[in-house]
Amino acid sequence: MLSIILPVYNEAPNLLEMHAKLTSALDTLGRDYEIVYVDDGSRDGSTELLAGFASPRVRVIELARNYGQTEAMQAGIDHANGDILIFLDADLQNDPSDIATLVAKLEEGYDLVSGWRRHRQDSWLFRRLPSLLANRLITGLNKTPLHDLGCTLKAYRRSILGPIRLHGEMHRLLPLYAIRRGARLAEVEVLHHPRSGGRSKYGLGRTPKVLLDLLTATFINHYFNKPMYVFGMGGILLLFLGVLTGCFIIVRTIYFGGTWVSPMLFLMTMCILIGFQFLLMGLLAEIMIRLYYRNTEELSYSVRRSLGGSETDRSTEVSPP
Predict the structure, then answer these.
(1) CA proximity to 136, closest of 124, 145, 126
(2) Which DSSP symbol is given to 9?
(3) H/E element holding 35?
(4) Using CA of residue 302, residue 306, residue 310, residue 316, what is the dihedral sign?
(5) To 10 degrees, what angle do helices 99-106 and 12-27 make?
(6) Does 128 or 165 have the greater pLDDT score?
(7) What is the pLDDT of residues 82-126, one digit of tens each?
(8) Nearest Cα to 134, choosing from 61, 208, 83, 193?
C-alpha cells in the first residue's frame, strides 16, 4: 500500500488543484493507496478545505499548532498505514505524476528513491545557490550520492525508517539517517514547477538550523557507536600540545634564561586539563551509548534478510549489546 504524505501550512490557493492532480495520478497507478494530509496549524482556510477532502482513502491530521515541516512529516508517518511512504509538498511545485517514476524505481530493489529537481524553477540567488552549496557540503561530508537532498518528493520503504524519529530540521537529512541503517538508495529526475499561489515558507533564515542538524547527522552517521574516536582524539591532541608546551617552557627556562611563570605555562595547564576532560567525556559517551542500546529496542546493526537455518530462531532472543 502506498501512503502519500503531504505537510500543509497555509496552502489554501493550491489545495484544490493539488488534490485533483494527486488523486488523478494515483488512480492511474492501479495500486492501493491512501493520502495523508497533515495540517500544520494553517490559518488561511486550508484546514476547512482539507476537511472536505476526508474520505476512506484520504486522512486529514490537524495539528494543534504550527510545529514545522519536520514534525508534520513525523505525524504523517505515525498515522500512515502503507509500507511505502511518499512525501510530497502541497504547493504544486512537485508534480504528482512523478510518483509513478519513484515507485517503479523503488520496486527495482531500492529502499529509498529521492527526487532530483534538475531544472529547478526557483530564484537562483536565494534558493538554488544556497541549496547547491548545502548539497555539496552534505555530500562531501557524508559521501552521499544525491544531488538534491532538499527535494521533498521522496519514496521510502517503511522498514528502512525503523525507529527514526524526526525533529528539528531532520526531514532534509532523513536520507543520511536511512543510509546509516543500510538503505539502498537511488535518485531520479523529477519535474519542478514555479510556485503559482501562496507564499514560500523557506528562506535563508533556516540555514543555521540546517547546518547544526547537519553537524548532528554527520556525528551520528560516523561516530554514534564510537564517540571516543571524536573526544579521545581531541583529548590526545590537547594533551600532546600541553606536553609539548611544557617541554618548550623547560628548555627555554634552563638553557635560555626564561622565566617559569609566563602565558605559556597557562596554555600548558589549560591544554592538559581540557585534554583530560575530553577523554572523560569520551568515556561517558561510550557508557551512554551502551546504556542506550541496552534500554531501547534499537540494535546497532540492520538486517536486510536472513536465509536458511533451523526452525529454532535465536534472533528473537538477541538483545542489544
Answers:
(1) 145
(2) S
(3) strand 33-39
(4) positive
(5) 50
(6) 165
(7) 999 999 999 999 999 999 999 999 999 999 999 988 888 766 666
(8) 208
**DSSP secondary structure of 52-92:** HH-BTTEEEEE-SS---HHHHHHHHHHH---SEEEE--SSS
The whole domain housing 111 covers: 2-223
Pair (44, 179) in one structural domain: yes
The Cα 292–Cα 313 span in angstroms is: 25
Q: How many CB atoms lie within 10 A of CB 260?
A: 10
- Radius of gyration from C-alpha coordinates of the chain: 25
State whether 152 and 277 are in the same domain.
no
d(CA 190, CA 164): 26
- What per-residue confidence (pLDDT) applies to 289? 82
Q: What long-range pairs does 245-250 form, CB within 8 A, spacing at least 24?
A: 245/271
> Which of residues 206, 223, 240 is at a domain's end?
223
- pLDDT digits 0-9 by tens, 288-297: 888 877 777 6
What are 71's three cell numbers? 514534525
Q: Specify the pLDDT at position 207.
A: 67
Asked if pLDDT for residue 9 goes beyond 60, the answer is yes
Amino acid code (one letter) for 148: D
Is residue 194's pLDDT more than 90? no
198 & 70 share domain: yes
What is d(CA 17, CA 27) in angstroms, rounded to the nearest whole number?
16
